[in-house]
Amino acid sequence: MPFAPVLHAELIKIRTLRSLLGSLAAIFVATAAFSALAAADAGDADPLFSAFFGVGFGQIAAVAFGTTALSSEFRGGALRLTLAAVPDRRCWFAAKAVATALPVLAVGLFTGLVTLLVAKSVLGASGPAWAEGLRAAVGCGLHLTLMALFATGLAAVLRSGVATLSVLIPFLLVVSFVIGGLSAGLADFLPDRAGQIALHSTWDGPLGPWTGLAVTALWTAAALGAGAWSLHRRDA
Fold first, then answer.
1. What is the spatial distance between Cα 88 and Cα 23, in angstroms, rounded to a whole number?
2. Is the pLDDT of residue 236 over 60?
C-alpha cells in the first residue's frame, strides 16, 4: 500500500482521539503558562531560558501525546486490524511516526512563537533579542517533536502506555535533575536536557543549541529504530 493513504489514515486516528487532542492543548497551555510566570520573575537569570522555562513542563505533555498515539494500537486488538489493512509494518510505523510528529511540530512552533511574544511584552527591553528568541522558538518546536517521537519509539518497545509513562515521567521529573546535580556535563547528553540547550542565551558545556538538538535526535532515532525492530519481530 502506498505511504500517503496510510499516513492519511493515521492522521484521522489522531484527530478523532480526544485524549490526543487534549495532550496537544496541554503542550501549549503548560509551556506558555509556566514560561509567562518565569518571565515575570526572571530577575538576573538568563532572560531567554526564563522566557522558555515552561518547555520543561510542555515536554511532559508531548511525551504523553507520543505515548498515547502508539499505545492506543495495543488496546482491544486494534493493531491486528491495522496490520490486516497495512501488512507492511515498516510502512505503517513510519506513517505513525510522521502522523505523531506533524501536529506536535505545528503546536510546538506556534507555542514557541507565542511564548516569545509574551516574554517580549513582559520583559520589555531586558527580554531576549529577536534573533536568539526566534532560534529558541524553533528549538522549542523541534525539541517537543523529538520528545514525542522518543516516547513513541519507547511505547512500541514496551507495548504499554502505562509502562512507557512510568519510565519517562519519573525520568523527566526526578532522574534527569539528580544526574544534572551530580554531573552537569553528563546531563547535557540526556535527551530532555540536550534539546533544551537551544533555549539558553549562553552555554558552558560541550554542546551548543543545534548540536544539543542533534543529540536529542540521536536518542529519538535509536528509540524509533528499537520500536520498528520490536514491531517487526514480535506478534501483533
1. 29
2. no
